[in-house]
Amino acid sequence: MSATTLIFLYIIFRIKHFTCDFLLQTDWMALTKGKPGKEGYEALFIHTGIHALFTFGIVLMFAPALWWLGPLDFIVHSLIDRFKGVFTYSKGWEPKDTIFWWTFGLDQEAHNFTHLVYIILIAMHMGGLGI
To answer: In whole angstroms, what is the distance from residue 39 CA to residue 2 CA?
Structure first.
């Protein structure tokens, strides 16, 4: 895989994350996905389902045999967001609290690392990281 393709994949995953986490995530999803019970899981799974669909689409363009990264993204993104959401909700942390932003940043970096793993898997499938 060329360095250009690698950078292109990185940019696509960054755009995907911004789109799914900020443009397509409603206030209801963002404020509810950490709550206990059915409503919390419903908000979470709608949000992470959107992420999974976008990841599935990206993977189909570059390495269709790795289609399973879409469902894997659903699981991984759900675990990251649920852990952060439940923890933040249970502590009562709000945007006015510094610790809220620390956990938000940690959540975002966990997603970035996940995307890096997907990019490496796609690159390996396409013949390696010959850069």
So the answer is: 44
Instruction: Read off the pLDDT of residues 70-99 as tens digits, 9 standing for 90 and up.
Output: 999 999 999 999 999 988 988 989 899 999
Q: Helices 69-91 and 98-125, interaxial angle, to 10°?
A: 170
Block residue for tokens 């390495």 = 63
Query: Would residue 37 be called left, alpha or beta, if left means φ above 0 and alpha means ψ between -120 and 50 degrees?
Result: left
Please state the rounded mean pLDDT for residues 30-40.
Answer: 91
Q: Which residue has the higher pLDDT, 26 or 36?
A: 26
Pick the residue with more confidence: 127 or 49?
A: 49
Measure the CA–CA gap between 93 and 22, rounded to whole angstroms: 20
Beta-carbon contacts of residue 77 (< 8 Å; ≥ 6 apart): 47, 48, 51, 52, 111, 114
- Identity of the residue numbered 98: T
